[in-house]
Design a protein that fits this description.
The complex is a heterodimer. By secondary structure, chain A is α+β, with helices and mostly antiparallel strands. Helices cover 41% and strands 19% of the residues of chain A. Chain A has 21 helices and 21 strands. Chain A has an eight-stranded mixed sheet with strand order 5-4-3-6-2-1-7-8, covered by helices on one side. A five-stranded mixed sheet of chain A has the order 9-10-13-11-12, sandwiched between helices. In chain A, a hairpin with a 5-residue loop joins strand 9 and strand 10. Chain B is mostly helical. Among the domains of chain B are: 79 residues; 133 residues, no CATH class. Helix content of chain B is 70%, strand content 2%. Chain B is built from 17 helices and two strands. Classes of the chains: A alpha+beta, B mainly alpha. Chains A and B meet through helix 12, strand 18, helix 16 and helix 17 of A and helix 2, helix 4, helix 6 and helix 12 of B.
Chain lengths: 601, 366
């Protein structure tokens, strides 16, 4: 036994409103879309000459939309309006609108839809009246109905704001911004005269001026330049404006995309390559397909092929600019080097071409690679970089004039770019700094110094190893620094482990211990500078509490100089050492402990 | 809050998930520690957890979580209910990430699991099944996996559950674990048809489809999935696993493109501390060089490798045999670390399954 089920049209409309469409205003888009489809059908049908037009007339919360397209025959009405969801292919013309579904959107703002239409095929005019409860009536239309379709809506309760003339004008102007025929609201045209980049009737100079003016209106300020886009896949035509500012994350990828002249989205991101955040594009695809909600493009082969062509055209623009107008390229790179770096990270040939132009933060300031390499050895060119901010800070502290500067490669693409650059240019040595690399530049001690510092080295090792620090004695510049401390990569892990362990240990202490297992190295490496007078004095001390206290304090001082946060034990060392030193100083000044305390009180 | 910290936050806010963001958040954590501001330190480390998780550096996520968990336990009054709940939700990440570090022994993983269950007053059957299924598949316990799968698909989600997209993808993983490529592909299509999204979905989902489609000889479909996700996962350190799947596909369909893909991604595979993902990439690279080597001891290829890659050659010429041996050795070494910890041979089996792709006949040229 079979049963039929009924559809709650009201509920369906609510569903559409909440989940498919972005908002009730889409009824304007759907009406226009149906009108455009009808106009195209009439243009391609009989070949007759007529002036296409779309118009809205609004008064007293009633809106009438008119198109002079092909109109509907009685069969069309039964096909498209009696069965919701039926495809609306007319002959061989693939329409982006689906007439019935599109008209359904009108229920978002109106309880009733009146449609009066006369078909260009010569059938008599008809009047269709549909209601939100799913019922409809069909009768003869007025005899003087012109070819085309007229839809009349009356605002539902609470929806009057969606039928205000000024709002409809704004939406119709946006949705139909690139239509090559007029869209009028209460007799006033609200759209332009098609895409300015396609208008060559007044010569190239006039076209460029019109496009730049369009860009200035779009962006609020004149763009730096624009790139014409013309693809075979998806038949995309349009322009990519070069932004005159560096876009923030939120403002990236806000491209305005039309499908067959109708606005699809002004936040489309899929049609342009992901590295192209230096542009805002306005693109119109004749061969692209929208998704069901018609607010984004469908991810299909056509879209991907179009994106690849657009990527190639943007890349070609940059390459051409490098040869044609280096000053303009410099201005562009100054604003958009992150975007250019993102492309270079994906494309070796582009990287080779553009690497000399790209700025890198270094210990000698912001430098392009040729400037950077000119500062180092010409015989053995080398790039030294660090992606670790802690290490970079230490390294920059040690970088002296005449030495190869250090690149601060924390920008997203920097490490990858430098690696690829070195891979493509084997003559250039690439060194990712580690604490070991830095200390290798420290001078080794002479045999005499080794002998003189034997006790110091042994006591330093014994004192600091319990603090998870490996102590060494070296000679380095600047000589004013008595000690330098380097954090090894697992310092944060070790510090956290100590912090969460408290007195009792526990799961997290054990787990972090497991995680750090395998590395036998201490978490810090500290170098005492034998060139510093304090270290020379300390080296003459015997192994006694004073020497241990001095070394401990110098270690903590090195941590503080390097802006390394202290662990609880290191903080205790600092506090204890300070108390001892103050106590000693007070004692030396003839103040006993009791006396000094009483004075402080 | 210091101006320096505020400036850092401003820069962080303007960055997508990327290693640069993580570096700046670590810098912010250092500043809060210097200021001894624990409340701000908690806030920064919550950010750090998300960032580290999203850029393929889970080891840092574990450390940050340990810090946060300790803070939350010592200062329960400092976090409101929403923040406590948020921390509990992320606890599941830690439980799942734990097994991907072979240096963490099984008893500790069990303790971690019990701690999680205790904190959420006993796992709901649904969430227990989710966590249990992942672990059972990792150690190759088919019976346990089957039980967890049954419970996962027959119990309701709650506010501490993984997102629906991730749960749906775990189902596809389970079918692959069982060797049921057809069922896995149906589930993958289900995810795509419903436009489910998460950090790795659908980009990683397309990559997940590649191996089963290759095994079934459905090359056209594989090509479509590859085209839909390749650009999205390229160069992203958190997509090393998906990059490995693309490498396998390219190895069989376009070895020249595979070599470029390999050169672009191998440096991170050698560097990451997420060893499970590294194992997958090494196995995929072994497939590539097995295909290229093809028994010819003298075959060399020009590859632009970064100097940080082990075996780097200044002249850019690499023996296919040497590369194959290196990556095969690494894949097996990592698998043995996991298997030794788990006392099973599952990871070795997974490497073997990837290596078997090299024996598939490539698609006929059109």
């Amino acid at each position: 036994m079979s049963h039929s089920f009924s559809v709650d049209l009201g509920g369906l409309i609510d569903l559409l409103s909440e989940h498919l469409y972005s908002g009730p205003e889409v009824y304007v888009r759907e009406l226009m879309q149906n009108g455009i489809d009808a106009i195209r059908a009439r243009q391609q049908g009989s070949g007759e000459v007529f002036s296409p037009a779309l118009g809205f007339e609004i008064s007293n919360e009633t809106l009438t939309f008119t198109d002079n397209g092909v109109g509907l025959t009685p069969d069309d009405i039964h096909t498209f309006l009696a069965t919701i969801g039926r495809s609306s292919k007319r002959g061989n013309i693939e329409l982006i609108g689906q007439f019935g579904i599109g008209l359904l959107a009108c229920f978002l703002v109106s309880e009733e839809i009146e449609l009066v239409s006369r078909s260009a095929s010569g059938t008599p005019p008809l009047r269709w009246l549909g209601r939100a409860d799913g019922s409809y009536t069909l009768e003869d239309g007025p005899a003087d109905t012109p070819i085309g379709t007229r839809v009349t809506l009356s605002a539902r309760e609470g929806r009057a704001e969606y039928l205000l003339p000024e709002r409809v004008s704004e939406w119709a102007g946006d949705f139909g911004g690139l239509l090559p025929f007029p869209v009028a609201v209460n007799g006033v045209a609200v759209n332009g005269q098609g895409a300015p980049w396609l208008d060559t009737s007044h010569g190239e100079e006039a076209r460029r001026e019109a496009v730049m003016a369009y860009g200035a209106e779009l962006l609020g300020v004149p763009p730096l330049d624009f790139v014409d886009i013309d693809t075979g896949a998806g038949q995309v035509r349009g322009v990519a404006f070069i932004l005159p500012w560096t876009p923030t994350l939120e403002r990236r990828g806000q491209h305005r995309v039309y499908v067959r002249h109708m606005l699809l989205s002004d936040r489309e991101e899929e049609l342009t390559p992901r590295w192209a955040f230096f542009i805002r594009a306005v693109l119109d695809g004749q061969g692209l397909r929208p998704n069901a909600a018609r607010d984004a493009l469908r991810d299909d082969g056509e879209l991907r092929a179009a994106r690849e062509e657009i990527a190639a055209q943007l890349r070609a623009y940059l390459v051409d600019l490098a040869g044609r107008d280096p000053a303009a390229l410099r201005r562009l790179i100054k604003l958009h080097f992150l975007s250019i770096k993102a492309l270079a990270a994906e494309d070796d040939a582009f990287l080779q071409l553009f690497m000399p132009w790209l700025p890198f933060e270094t210990s000698a300031g912001s430098l392009a690679l040729p400037e950077y390499l000119a500062l180092g050895s010409q015989e053995h060119p080398e790039i030294r970089f660090s992606g670790d901010l802690n290490l970079y800070r230490q390294a920059a502290q040690l970088a002296l004039p005449g030495q190869t500067p250090i690149v601060r490669a924390i920008y997203t693409y920097d490490s990858a770019l430098l690696s690829r650059y070195a891979a493509l240019n084997p003559g250039v040595r690439l060194t990712q700094l580690s604490p070991n690399d830095l200390v290798q530049e420290f001078s080794a001690l002479t045999p005499q110094e080794l002998a003189q510092t034997a006790t110091l080295r042994e006591v330093a090792r014994d004192t600091l190893l319990p603090l998870d620090a490996e102590a060494r004695v070296s000679r380095f510049d600047p000589a004013e620094l008595p000690a330098l401390a380097f954090a090894r990569p697992h310092r944060e892990l070790a510090r956290t482990r100590e912090k969460v362990g408290g007195a009792g240990g526990g799961l997290w202490t054990d787990l972090l211990g497991d995680l750090g297992a395998g590395g036998q190295e201490a978490a810090m490496e500290v170098h005492f500078n034998v060139a510093h007078p304090l270290i020379q004095q300390a080296a003459r001390l015997p192994d006694a509490p004073l020497l241990r206290r001095v070394l401990g304090m110098l270690y903590v001082q090195a941590l503080l100089l390097g802006q390394h946060p202290l662990t609880t034990r290191e903080l205790a060392l600092l506090n204890g050492g300070l108390a001892d030193l103050i106590g000693d100083a007070l004692a030396g000044a003839g103040l006993g402990e009791r006396e000094s305390v009483s004075r402080l009180n | 809050m210091s101006q320096q910290l505020q400036d850092l936050y401003d820069r962080i806010d303007d960055l997508p998930r990327c290693p640069e963001e993580l570096a700046l958040i670590e810098e912010a954590a250092r500043l809060t520690d210097l200021m001894q501001d624990e409340a701000e330190g908690y806030r920064v480390r919550r950010m750090l957890m998300d960032s580290a998780h999203a850029v393929g550096q889970s080891e840092k996520m574990l450390v940050a979580f340990g810090w946060c968990r300790d803070y939350a336990d010592r200062h329960p009054e400092a976090l409101d209910e929403g923040e406590q709940q948020d921390l509990l939700w992320h606890h599941r990440w830690v439980v799942n990430a734990g097994r991907t570090f072979p240096q963490i022994p099984t008893p500790r993983l069990m303790a971690l699991y019990e701690d999680y269950a205790r904190r959420i007053l006993g796992l709901s059957r649904h969430n227990e099944a989710f966590v249990g299924l992942l672990y059972a598949m990792h150690i190759g316990d088919g019976a346990a996996a089957s039980g967890h799968f049954e419970r996962l698909t027959s119990t309701v989600r709650d506010e501490l559950s993984a997102c629906p997209a991730c749960e749906a993808e775990i189902e596809a993983d389970y079918h692959l674990f069982c060797g049921n490529d057809e069922a896995a592909l149906r589930q993958i299509q289900h995810i795509l048809d419903r436009r489910m999204t998460c950090a790795h979905i659908p980009t990683g989902t397309h990559a997940l489809a590649l191996a089963p489609l290759m095994r079934l000889g459905r090359w056209d479909e594989a090509g479509q999935h590859a085209a839909r996700s390749r650009q999205s996962v390229s160069g992203d350190p958190d997509h090393l696993w998906a990059q490995a799947r693309h490498l396998e596909y390219l190895a069989l369909t376009s070895p020249n493109a595979a070599l470029k893909w390999y050169a672009h991604h191998v440096a991170w595979a050698e560097q990451t501390r997420e060893l499970g993902a590294a194992q997958t990439f090494h196995a995929a690279a072994a497939v590539l060089f097995t295909v290229l080597w093809n028994g010819d001891q003298t075959k060399t290829y020009a590859i632009r490798l970064a100097p940080t890659v082990p075996g780097y050659a200044e002249d850019g010429q690499y023996s296919a045999r040497e590369r194959m041996d290196h990556h095969l050795g690494e894949a097996l070494r990592l698998a043995s670390l996991f298997d030794a910890r788990n006392d099973t041979a599952q990871q070795r089996r997974e490497v073997d399954m990837v290596l078997a792709l090299a024996r598939i006949a490539p698609p006929a040229k059109a």
